[in-house]
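Issue: copy button drops trailing tokens. Both records pasted manually instead:
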Amino acid sequence: MTATALDAQIQGRDPQGWANQLTQIIRDALTRAHQERQPTFLRDRSFLSVGIILLVVLIQRMLSLWQKRLRTRQKVLQSIVNTKIAAQSNPVAIEDSQQDLSLEELSLQQQINLSDLQQRVLQIVELIIIGVGCFVILGLFPYTRWLHFFVLSEPLQILGILLGTYVLIRVSHILVDRFSGILKARDFRMLKSSQRLELDDSR
């Protein structure tokens, strides 16, 4: 390797000083590469990798249990909504009670949407944790460290952007549902008030 005057000028050094610095950098890199390929070093990194894998599995298990609880809660809420819809189709239902049921169904549907969003977020967090664990393990060994460049490549960055966009879209749906629920609740209250006034006037 040759340290030219132009290289030294770019680095702001004199040629001899830059050549000496390059020599030290190369010597340190070769020493480190030799040490990282020793059986003791590889054994210690293997134990560390096993610990990281166990930690990732533990966190993944906890997130799976959390998702299972959310799915159970979502099924319960959905069954309540279905029951209320069936009760609403009863011809003997009273108009005020129908309005109350509509508000309650709207609130339950918002809870269902929120539970679904939480499940999706937990799934994405689970994927991120697995990805980070794999990324760290790849960096522990000199034989797999080159894969870092692939992990940080543009296709995976685009995938991360798509996942983030998906979460933002789901959050916007939840916010829109909540805002529309507030508007419907206000309309129902105004409708009930006007109906009461009409009944009082007719009497």
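Record 2 (pasted manually too):
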Amino acid sequence: MAPQRRAGLPFRVNSSGGGKSLTEHYVSVDIDLVEDRAARRQKAQGFVEWIAAEARRQGAASQTLSILQGNPERMQAMIDQFEDQYVNNPPGDYEIVAEYRPVSRGNHWTGTLVSRPFRVRVVAGPDFFDRARESMGARSPQPAK
């Protein structure tokens, strides 16, 4: 059996860190495996359209509706913002190797740290917008019967 080809995957990293002493430091890292831009854009647009539809359903006095109606620039800005925030780690098995290279020069160490490979399995589930819809729906007032 031939070995599987390894492919790079778009990702986004958020990190922070600090030190315990002058010689011991730590870095905390979150890794998002990022879907391609077209998929993120399509999902963001669908979400903004859903927000506008919910605002129409709740009544024309909605502040959200007044922001979105008849203002394509604001709607586009909202789509852009949600596209940037959208995270949906695509389901699958991944092997990740992390490298750390300090960006500051001078009297600091300038080598590269490389982690051992580690495996991650992402299982299918609700994405960012599904969870947001659930959260927003839970707070929406129910119509009187």
